[in-house]
Design goal:
200 residues; alpha/beta; three-stranded parallel sheet; two-stranded parallel ribbon; 5 helices; 5 strands; 15% strand; globular; binds zinc ion
């Protein structure tokens, strides 16, 4: 899950149009992953107040997702199950990080969790989702973008469409949240040890 934070949702400091509409669908995917005991990773923008991406500091964007503020919190309706790994990015004043892999240990943690394929959704399609997907591909993961679980900034009208086209051209697949839920639900849980009767 990429950056499903208050500031990227309607009413937030850098609101993505209809950004909050991804939440119920993502919740269904999170629920399916939880039931299948599959690892879940959430990224978040977690900026210092003088971050280089902010207009006053030479960047493109209004201040957003300043660490510890309300706007940096996950959308209140987003399901964040226990055991979810939260990866903060853009934490250094001088460096921007659209990708969840940039300047973080996300790749290492995914690999340690035995992940080979990543299902990815969140905000915003044309920036953080795109860059995270591309870095995941570069790191050797299979990538499926949840096409109904992403929304874009679209500074230019077709930015999101171009972003999805680019990640597909680089080898990612597009699936719907329903596809993902079906797929994950049909996967047999890896059982680490044979089942034994509980002795009392
Ligand atoms: Zn940011």
């Amino acid at each position: 899950m990429v950056d499903v934070q208050r500031d990227f949702c309607p009413g937030g400091a850098l609101a993505v149009k209809d950004g909050d509409t991804v939440v119920p669908r993502l919740n269904r995917v999170v629920g399916a992953f939880t039931r299948a005991s599959l690892p879940i990773f959430f990224t978040r923008d977690w900026h210092p107040g003088n971050h280089v991406s902010f207009k006053d500091h030479g960047g493109t964007w209004p201040p957003h997702c300043v660490k510890g503020t309300r706007g940096a919190g996950f959308h209140p309706k987003l399901r964040v199950p226990r055991g979810t790994v939260v990866v903060s990015k853009g934490t250094q004043a001088g460096s921007e990080a659209y990708s969840g892999f940039q300047g973080t240990d996300l790749e290492k943690r995914l690999k340690e969790a035995g992940v080979r394929e990543v299902f990815l959704g969140g905000l915003a399609t044309d920036y953080c989702v795109k860059e995270t997907a591309l870095d995941a591909l570069d790191a050797g993961f299979k990538v499926k973008v949840l096409e109904d679980c992403v929304r874009g900034v679209d500074l230019h009208a077709d930015d999101s469409e171009l972003a999805l086209r680019e990640v597909v051209a680089r080898g990612a697949g597009l699936v719907t949240s329903s596809d993902a839920v079906r797929l994950v639900t049909s996967v047999k849980k890896p059982s680490s040890r044979p089942k034994r009767p509980i002795l009392r």
